[in-house]
Amino acid sequence: MSSTFSPNPAESLWQMMDQIRGSFDRRTQGPRKSRGDVRAAILVLLAEEPMHGYQIIREIEERSAGAWKPSAGSVYPTLQQIADEGLVRVEESNARKTYVLTDEGRAEAESASAPWSEHERGGSFQALPKAGVELAHAVSQVMHTGSAAQTDEAIEVLADARRRIYAILAQG
Question: Are residues 89 and 128 in the same domain?
C-alpha cells in the first residue's frame, strides 16, 4: 500500500480501492504454468492427433478458455526435449515440422492429465476477480457521487453480500 496520507478519508479510501483494483487486474492473468504442465499438455494433445508447435499453442489456449497461452519459448524446447527422449518423432511436410507420438510417447501420454482441466470451472478463476473489480468500481462511484441515503443503502448491500459469500464457503 502507498504511504501517501490524505486528510480526506474518502480520498484515502478511493486510493485504496485503486490499489485493490490493480492487484485484481494482475491476478486475473493466472498463475504461470511450469514446464511439466507444458509437457503434459503436449503429450495429451499429440495423443489425439499429430500437430505442429503453433497448433499446440492454439489448442492449449482454446481448451483453457484463454486462461493459459504458453509461449513458443516454452513449447518448442519442450518438444525438442521429448523428441530427444524418443517420445515423439518429427515429420516434415510443406516445410513444417509436425510432431507425432511414438509408442513410448503414447504410453506416457496415457498417464498424463490435461493441465487445462483446472480452468474448466466456467472461467471462475478470471470471473471472480473481475466481479470484485466491478464491485469496487460501483462502490467508488457511490462514494463519490451518492447521497447519504444511497451510501447507507450501499453499506447494507455490501454487508449482506459479505455474509452471503461467507455462507457459500460454509456450505462446503
Answer: no
